[in-house]
Amino acid sequence: MIERQQPHSSLHKSQEAGYTIIESLVAMIVVSVLMIAIAPVMAFSVATRVQAKRIEMATQAAKTYIEALRSEALKPGTNGFPAQYTTDNLEGTPAPTDINALYCIDKDGNGCKSDSNQDFVVQGYYFNRLPATTNPAKTGYSLIVRVYRANSFASGVGALTTQKDLKAQQGITTAGLGNLNAPLVEMRTEIGASDRQGAYNSLCTRIGSNGCQ
Known about the structure:
The protein is α+β, with helices and mostly antiparallel strands.
């Protein structure tokens, strides 16, 4: 009995179909391996962009705070006004502990809450060589500003740190990126005297400069 042979054209098509399935499987494996390899890089890139945007917004919050002080929209004795420090080593001032005593930049419109990942909290310390009874807004002062995320004050986060603490713990290169305990921004500036009369003498007294004599 003669066996019926499969036509050559049908056999050729079947072999081509088999090769196509194998090639597809190999391609899927290669793509999967590549995705696994580059996924951490993509995640890091996205996280870096998000952090950069957050720092940009924190810098704007710090500038808003400084302008509020310069224009005297934020006055001594009000919530959020910078605390006085005893020396000009403002970088050595302690990190904040109470969110309610600080200046809040409300980004989500729900008030300053420790569960917000959008709000910013600004801490300020000032120093001048004048008596504590002197109005610092009238005489001018040195100022340091730190900006934290509001959710840095959430329970379980732990004690907050300053840039000085970070440099001692991690080195300058890390800069605390992504560290919820660390300030997003820390800057130092001078707030000039709003009372122009005697402002020059006030500056000389604050900085202790012999050149003013």
